[in-house]
Every structure is written in structure tokens, then in C-alpha cells.
Amino acid sequence: MKPRAPRTLFGRLLLIMTAGLLLAQVLGVWLQLSERRNTVGSTVSLELTQRVAAVYRAIDHQRPAERAELAAWLASPRLSLELLAQAPQEQAMAARLHGLVVGLKKLLGPDVEVRALRLPRIGDFSFELFIRLSAGDWLHLRGGASDEVFAWPWLLLANLSLMLTAVIVLVWWAARQAVRPLSELAAAALALGEDLGRKPLPEDGPQEVQQAAKAFNAMQTRLRAGIEERERFLAAVSHDLRTPVTRLRLRAEMLTDPLLRERTLRDLDDMQGMLDGALDFLHGKLVDEPTQPVDMVALLESMVDDAQDAGQPVTLQVPPGPLRLNARPRALKRAISNLIDNALKYGARAGVEVAARGHELQITVDDDGPGLEAQELTRVFEPFYRVESSRSRETGGVGLGLAIVRQVARSHGGEVELLNRPEGGLRALMRLPLQG
Questions:
Q1: Average model confidence (pLDDT) across the chain
Q2: Rounded Cα gap, residues 391 and 303, in angstroms
Q3: Each residue's pLDDT tens digit, 44-85
Q4: Pick from 428, 429, 409: which is nearest to 335 by CA?
Q5: What pLDDT digit, counting tens, does each position of 370-384 carry?
Q6: Are 199 and 254 in the same domain?
Q7: Is 57 part of a structural domain of the chain?
Q8: I need a labelling partner for 110 at 20 to 30 A (CA). Which of 76, 235, 288, 334 fits?
Q9: b/e per residue, 48-84, with b = 16+ CB within 10 A?
Q10: Is 160 domain-assigned?
């Protein structure tokens, strides 16, 4: 499975900066260890060359009978010395170009024959040499450098790891500080849809963040001013339209033709209902109500009791104990009433259920009606939209009931949807977040 990059800006900044630091640190450690190995190797090679040359001169200057005793005395755990009558041939011509062999020839002279069976290399600094003495026999030398010389510098690596950890922590803190204003701006933009009267963002931090906060606060001020202007306009329209409708209703009452009077009054009722619904939806009163703790079980029990007292077939299922929610009670009651009214109009009954599932509260309203086509399940939430089966005067309305329900649900940070039940009928599901 292909690895995915972090989706958040903070994660991407942290990944890029940490990866860059790790790469730089690894390259730095590799270069440092390589340089250290080369330096130590050169130093050890030079010291070894001088020591071998000194041993050779000391032994070669002794009488043949004393050479073996001196070789045994000069030997050490890291260097064994032995006198032999014959020496094997070299394994490769390239050995003559090795730094150790070249250095010995410089110190001992070109007439001294040096044969190498094993020479130091990276990772293995052992060697085996044969050097011809002036008497014709051979000095056999075997040895190597201490393992500690070329061992991993654990203390250095520990210091580098500690420094890298500290730098990563600083990078994490810097990335968090850089992203925090953007997170606050995103949260403020999300909350703006629910409350235009929220406090402005603090205009502090880096210059770019200050500019973004100032622009956001200016946008919030303009939106609030525009909505207030719309509310004043709608209030004037409401007053101006209600007055002629009332006058028309009085004149209709004076009509002598009963059929004409009935039709006229019915049209005026429809006009009044459309006017009240549209103004109620556009005015936004439902979302301007302040929030307060609401016991949803008690609220639904009260609503269902009122409906049952009116002879309506409404049932309720609730869990034991209260379910508290910070909400706008009048707006929420209006939204649930709209769902119950729709269930009674088109489904003959309304079955209401409330339950807490996870971090959200779910309110369902079921009916036994014909349900809706799949393409209608979302369109019915559009303002003034009505399906063909709801355009009669008996079951009609102005098409704002479900639009108001969605407006209320979203103002609480929730959502509402319609689902066709497998056993028949329609289910309205409202989900509202529960406060921790």
C-alpha cells in the first residue's frame, strides 16, 4: 500500500522539516565517520610502518644467534614476530602499491624485499608481512590494530541523537506555532455560520496572521451589517404586506356569493401562510434564539402529549433518564413539530424516538406513508420546493417546513436527512452533537 502524506498542514510541515533534518544529520554523520576512519587509518598505518621498520632494524643488526631471542622479546599481543628460512609468494601484484608496503620500502630502502600476505583494509586492520633480513632469512610479522580504534563512536552517536531529538522538538513547536493561527481562523470561519455575533478574532501574532484576522473580522462585520439590513427590510415588507391582506380579508367577508367568498378567503389564507412562512424562514428568528440546557426527553414527552391530547396518532420511545443538550428550545421544538406534521400529513402516523449514540443525539420520526423517490430525498429540503403529491390544498404548504428543519439542525452543528424505510414509509433522522 502506497504511503500517504499527512493531510494537515501541521503534519506536512513537521514531516518535511523532520525529514530534512534527518537527511542532513545522516549525511553529516556519514561524512564525519568516513573522515574519522580515514584519519585514524592513516595515523595507525604511519605508526605501524615506523614500528615495523624499527623492529626490523633492531633484529637485523643482531647476530644470527640472538635474533630469535630478540624477536620473542619484542613481540606483543598485537604483534607476533617469527624468524623463518622461507617466505611464501605474494598473492597479488597490487599489494606492492599498498601504503604500508610503500612506506616500509621508503624507510628500509629499495633493496629490502617485502612480501605481503594480508594488508590492512577498512573494517579489518590486520596484516601479515615477510621481510628479508640481510642474512637471507625472513622476519614474519603478524598483527593488527586494537578493535577499539575502529569501533563505533557510541558517545558521539548518542550526543548526535540527543541533539537531533532536541531539534525535532523545537521543529514540532515551531510548526505548531505557525499553524495555530490558521487552525483558529478555520474554527472561527466554521463557527461564523452558527453565530454571526461571535467575538472577533484577536489581531495579534505575525504580520500575515494579523492581516488575515483583520480581513476575517471585517468580513464578519459586513455580513452582520448586511443581515441586520435584511432584517429591517423584511420587517418593513412584513408590515406593508400584512395590512393589504387584512383589508382584502375584510372585503371578502362582505361578498354575497358564498362560493366566491369561500374561494377568496381560501386564497387569502394561502397567501397569509406563504407570507408568514417565508418571512419566518428569511428573517432567521429560529437561529437567533440564545442557547440553553434542554432536556430532550422532557421536551419530546410534552410535544407528544399535546399531540395525543389532540387525537393525533403519535408515539414516543425514549431512554431512561434525561438527555441534556445545549440548544435553542423554541427553534428545536418548531423543527421537530414540522417533522411530526409531515409524518401525519403523508404517513398517517408519527413514531418518534430519541437516543444518544456516541457523541451525538439522534431524533427519528417514522411514518407509514409511500416514501419518496431517491432523487427527492434531498430536494425536499430546498426552500419552496414541493413534490407533486404535496401540491394539493389539503396537504400542501409553501415548501418551507423541511427547509426550516435543516436550518435549525445546522444552526446546532447537526444535520437532518430523509430515508426510505425497508418496511415502508419514510424516516426523518436529525443528528445533533452532544457536548462533552
A1: 78
A2: 27
A3: 667 778 888 888 888 888 887 788 888 888 888 778 888 888
A4: 409
A5: 888 888 888 888 877
A6: yes
A7: yes
A8: 76
A9: bbebbbebbeebbeeeeeebeebbeeebeeebebebe
A10: no
